[in-house]
Design brief:
mainly alpha; single chain
Length: 345
């Protein structure tokens, strides 16, 4: 029954895009419709990821989900850069990392039974995020004073982005090689989707998600004005959650089905993918539009450090627990309050 409803709701995606492109509906109508349209798309990406993981294992499955799920965030960032909203870009990217580590992983642990995850892969992901924080300090510290978007910081950010990207690609290659070696004895399943079909569905669902997400973000400004929220808060919390809604939904659904290892891998892999891949790629691609300085605010860097530290604490024990999930969600709530108080200052 639920599956049939979700399949029916997939029609909301084309409807939302059509209403937006034709101007037949205002922002107050588009926002809730677009949010609703992302729910079945999140389910579809989760379904395709689960099918693909039957062939590739949790490590590669989580990587696939994170890679496809990051497409909306990349689109959001490039559109915002073209509109001169550099603060929105930086805040949404940092908010994405924090949200995946604390909110997504928190709900995964909360809804799943006690179990184990790939702790080696988890701590590699956390190490990638921490490496990103250390490298981002180079252009960020000079940006604490003066204009954070000045040209010298954009120039300084380019080599930092390249180094971070190389580091992430190297880590990805080793992680995927390790995951493949762990899955050498896994035979190809005789039932379910083919791997090719799963990849095609992932790609199509990602394109649809990107289009719907673009509509949703376009309607956020009016919502933010009416709600009296700061631009920073909207970007770091609302836009970040919107851009990650596929990971949020699919990871929680997989956890509820008993796929704890894969669900946890999605949240952790997505966080490290944003920190080590998406941030430098956005910085590099921005030179074709308007060079972006990776000069993060102290509150943004602090949010990432807190997220890494609390997740490391939650995963210190060999087995997971719902209490650890509650701790992560509570920490995310505290970070959200800090983002709200910080405002645009």
């Amino acid at each position: 029954m639920v599956r049939r409803v979700l399949l029916t709701l997939l029609a909301l995606g084309p409807l939302v895009v059509a209403l937006d492109r034709t101007g037949a509906a205002g922002d107050l109508v588009l926002f809730p419709l677009a949010a609703a349209a992302l729910v079945p798309l999140a389910w579809l990406i989760g379904e395709a990821t689960e099918q693909a993981a039957r062939y590739t294992g949790p490590g590669v499955g989580g990587f696939l989900n994170a890679s496809f799920g990051n497409a909306p965030e990349l689109i959001i960032a490039l559109v915002a850069i073209s509109d001169g909203l550099t603060n929105v870009v930086r805040a949404s990217l940092i908010g994405s990392v924090v949200g995946n580590l604390l909110l997504v992983l928190g709900f995964v642990l909360l809804v799943s039974e006690r179990g184990t995850i790939d702790r080696t892969s988890a701590f590699v992901s956390l190490g990638t995020v921490l490496l990103a924080v250390l490298l981002l300090l180079v252009p960020s510290v000079p940006g604490f004073h003066g204009d954070p978007d000045r040209d010298s910081l954009a120039v300084l950010s380019l080599p930092i982005a390249i180094v971070l990207l190389i580091a992430r690609v190297t880590i990805n290659r080793r992680s995927l090689r390790r995951s493949r070696s762990m899955q050498q004895s896994v035979a190809e399943p005789s039932e379910g989707w083919s791997l090719r079909l799963a990849i095609i569905v992932l790609a199509v669902a990602t394109v649809a998600t990107a289009l719907v997400t673009e509509t949703l973000v376009g309607s956020l400004e009016d919502f933010a004005l009416r709600a009296h929220l700061s631009e920073f808060f909207v970007a770091a919390v609302i836009v970040a959650i919107v851009g990650n809604i596929t990971e949020h939904g699919s990871a929680v659904l997989l956890a509820a089905r008993g796929q704890l290892r894969l669900a946890a891998e999605i949240g952790l892999a997505s966080a490290s993918q944003v920190a080590g891949f998406l941030i430098p790629v956005v910085a590099i691609l921005s030179w074709a539009i308007d060079p972006l300085a990776l000069s993060m605010r102290p509150i943004e860097l602090a949010g990432m450090v807190v997220a890494v530290g609390v997740v490391a604490l939650a995963l210190a024990r060999p087995t997971t627990s719902r209490l650890a999930g509650a701790l992560l969600i509570g920490t995310y709530a505290a970070v959200v309050v800090a983002f709200y108080v910080a405002g645009n200052r």
